[in-house]
Amino acid sequence: MYYRNISDLNQIILKRLHIIPRDFDLIVGIPRSGMMPANLLAFYLNKPYTDIHSFINGHIYKAGARGQFFDIKDFKKVLVVDDSIASGSAIIKAKESLKELTSDFDISYCAIYVMPGKEKMVNYHFEVVPLPRYFQWNILNHTTLEKACFDIDGVLCIDPTEEQNDDGPKYIDFILNAPPLFVPGCKIGTIVTSRLEKYRKETISWLEKNNIKYRDLVMLDLPDKRARQKANNHAAHKAKTYNSSNEYVLFVESSLSQAIEINRLTKKPVFCTENFEMIFEAQSLSYNIKSGKYFPFLRRIALKLRNKLRNR
User: Fold this and answer.
1) Is the CB of residue 296 less than 8 Å from the CB of residue 284?
2) Of the residues 61, 92, 185, 188, which has the maximum number of CB atoms within 10 A of its CB?
3) What's the pLDDT tens digit per position in 166-202?
4) How many CA atoms lie within 13 A of 9 on its CB side?
5) What is the Cα–Cα distance from 50 to 35, expressed in whole angstroms?
């Protein structure tokens, strides 16, 4: 399993920026995942940039001047950028949409991350990354989310405050009206929460109101907040569902300490929204651009948290 966050994206672009010739006139991003790397490349190369649809319509935004545009005739050599290539369908579609412009522009193609064997689909690539892989900037739209488990508080919505968490009317009001946080763009698998079963009706109402599609909802079957605090088994409760089927391939959890414990119990990856890192082998994974290897980010903190949880 390979994970890249926004920092990794920025670092690999900086490290291998030299592969891009400096005679490009314009950087064009493929919406939407390609817009961020296109923007970074345009920034570091000090070139204007736009999205592919605006380019086709002759609109090139001029930095620092709202409402003003460059003349499309000012550009000849164009670099079209996407974040990654897996099947290659997006880059093929982009080439098809720009086919009529090839007589007027010298167009090249670039992807930051490519699958092994797909390198020749573009003129430039920055890193070869095989499947399975997750990117921070599109993980909430990943095709495997129907095989994922999701926490609610701190993931789908904000956490309640101490005042709101009264196991009474204030908490019910919070559940019904909590501001959404990280809302997935597709149907997800199973929601696994430490919310009490007695709040199922209000929780379902909130999920429906915020148009969150899911297959199942697993809650904690305890009588009240006091019993939940005494049990103190949040991570174990979530890990039990996550480990109940080989179909589940990812857990999205808000708490770093719980994410570490869920991973320890299941040996499966956990994506933590507290630090937007992937937790695997009870540690955060980050990619060391210099060495080309994973290193244990926050390893000492992770081990301390794991040992603390074990001793409870």
Assistant:
1) yes
2) 188
3) 999 999 999 999 999 999 999 999 999 999 999 999 9
4) 25
5) 8
Q: Could you tell me the two tokens for 291?
A: 């060495």
Question: DSSP letters along 216-231, please?
Answer: EEEEE--SSHHHHHHH
| Structure-block tokens of residue 20 | 């891009």
Q: Which residues contact 212 (CB under 8 A, 6 or more apart)?
A: 156, 183, 184, 188
pTM for the whole thing? 0.81
Phi-psi category of 154—alpha, beta or left, where left has phi over 0 and alpha has psi -120 to 50? left
Amino acid at 49: Y
Supply the DSSP symbol for 153: B
Tokens (6 digits) for 70: 């460059």
CB 54 within 8 A of CB 107: no
The contacts of residue 223 (CB under 8 Å, 6+ apart) are 196, 198
User: Token match 């490009």: residue?
Assistant: 24
Question: pLDDT per residue over 96-126, tens digit each?
Answer: 999 999 999 999 999 999 999 999 999 999 9
Chosen CATH of 2-133 out of 3.10.50.40, 3.40.50.2020, 3.40.50.2300, 1.10.4160.10:
3.40.50.2020
